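hey all, quick one before standup. I had two proteins in the batch that finished overnight and I want to keep them in one place so we stop losing track of which output belongs to which input. First protein below, input sequence then structure tokens straight from the run.
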Amino acid sequence: MKSSPHRPSIELLFKRGLGSAEIARRLQISSSTVRILRRHFAGGPFILQQDWAPSHGSRSTLAVLEAHFPGFLDKNLWRASSPDLNPMDFSVWGMLEGKIAGKVFATVDDLKAALEVAWASIDDGYLRRTVNSVKKRLRACVKARGSNFEILL
């Protein structure tokens, strides 16, 4: 199976000293990501999911959001329980944790290296299925009126 071209981007998150602005610049979020989204959705509506983790509210991140996603939901409108709707939070981080569970790491760099190996071992099909499950999760969340919806899945 062909590997996603986006996989190397996780490596940027582990480079010591890189702030969110530098990561955004290296990933070319302000140009290539927006171009891909516009092409994929062909002018139709789409929503950029912004979970408001502290680094996601940095000035540089907000500048990209304001420039390319006017009307994005600010942190006062985003539900506190939204991790249940984020594929990284409801699935992928748990998978990564499971792959390194029970191991002891002497340094943060050792932990990062183990996470990189774990990330590389995740099948792209698993990632696609996880992302494709979001629509079902959103419907369940609406049905539960924003309350605990995982029992409905």
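OK second protein, same deal, sequence then tokens:
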Amino acid sequence: MNPPEQILGEFGDGRVVKMLADMSKEVEQVKLEAERLISDEMFAAALEKLCDMERRTRLSADMNSNATVQVNIVSVCFSEKQYDILKEQIIALSKKRSLMKYANSKMVQTCVELMPSVSCKKAKFELIETLRKTTEGKIYVEVERARLTHMLSQMKEEDGDIEGAVKVLLELQHQDLKFKYYKLMILLDLYNKNYVGVSNHYYNLSETETFHDKSKIVTFLKNAVVYAILAPYSTEQWSTISRMSEDGNFDQIPKYKELVQLFIKEEIISWKKDILGVYDKLKAWSVSSTDYVEEYVESQEHTLANLEQLQCRVGEHNMRIVSKYYSRIYLNRIAELVDWNVEKTEEFLCKLIVNGTIPLAKICRPSGVVTFVPKKKSQEELDDWAVGTVDVMEKINKVTHLILKERMMYKNVHSFCEEEDSDEEDWFTDTLFKRQSSEYEDDFDDPDENTEDMYVEVDETTSESLSESELKAIESEMEKKSVEPDKTSEVEVVFDRPFF
């Protein structure tokens, strides 16, 4: 009984079919006949017989026989150096209906193995491009396509087309070659002391799908942080550490992320307290020993150089912070802030002035004063004074306008309140007058008697003639009227007695 791999075949569209017929014997006969025809210089007839057998084995779903025929077709073309026909056959075999993955991969592997036998550089270049085009997007021939791409890159490099060789490699998505590329770039940038580039390469390695081991990914992330901090201050370096502080991948290494935060905050970093007291225990400046880093990177000398570089970066950060918060400061005070002696502080500050990190700083050695803000010219100071004076006068004018506005509003409100108070006093007097008048009218028996003098007398003696209980009754009635208005005419009450 045939094993399962001989009776089952997988088509290019993913279908798995059962072999309908075993055509291995017919294939052997056709191979012998094709060899005889080729020896008789009848290449076209031999190729026609092989193509016919390829079609029959493919329709019979005979995976092994179909692979044998495809391999024989390309081998014959290579041996006879019929490269134009070979390109046509490669394209035709890759686009056949019911294409079998196993047979197609065997054909591509044979082409890759026989490629060094091609002596003509132009023909070799065209064959590689044809194979790369037909294998694009096919996972089962990914390795072969990567090897072809490597061959093409080497050919371009030999011709002096370095940019073309790099472009071809960058287009390739194969993870092993991607890792090899970043490994070489890390060594190159370490040699050139381009630490920002090293950091970016390590970060890209952490995103490579080849590494499923979490410990390896953590190692790459740690190295990315280390070299980003070791890089001199620049726009690119600042954007790199800012991205790290917001990237969730670095939450796996919290201590290293805290170190990044130290260089983002606009605060002085203490070398002894913030760095040596915390991060020296992590061995952060010795790149972890892995199979993916050269011995140069792991050497003790490299580690010590990293520590010295880190101290320079801390000093650079502290100098930038001092220049931001001070316009003039004594040199010995700067040395105290950065935990250095005066000589080292002066030397390091001079380097920062020369390389453009703090370009406007000036050191006065006799007085020991460092100025971070350049002295303005007389014309600039006069212009600043004029602008400031205009600004002050505009603000004074605005404040004066607001004060006058408040006084007018206060005056209007105060006069309105006085009118309301006078209305309440008149209402109180009228109430007393009417009440006392009604009492006096009840006491008089003679209706013809002149009452004009009585009204005058009442008006003058009302407050004296009322008893204390009557005054309290009138006051309570007034309070009741003001506190409990008539609810049936609420709108009238509101307009009649406005509240302030």
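Flagging for whoever picks this up: The two ends are 109 Å apart (CA to CA). DSSP finds 23 helices and five strands in the chain.
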